[in-house]
Amino acid sequence: MLVKMFHGFCMALADSVPGVSGGTVAFILGFYEKFIDALHGLFGKDNGARKVAVLYLAKLGVGWCLGLCLSVVALNDLFQTKTYFLSSLFLGLTAAAFPFILRTEWWALKGKGRYLPYTLLGVALVCGLSLVRGAASGGGVIDYWSLGVGELLYLFVAGALAIMAMVLPGISGSTLLLIFGVYAPTLYALRRLLALDLAVLPGLFALALGVLVGVGVSIRWIRAALRRNRAKMLYFILGLMAGSLYAIVMGPTTLSPPQQALHLETFHLGGFVLGVGILIGLERLKLLIARREARAEKTEDGTQGEEEAQSGGSPQGPA
Question: Tag placement on the chain: N or C end, fewer CB within 10 Å?
Answer without folding.
Answer: C
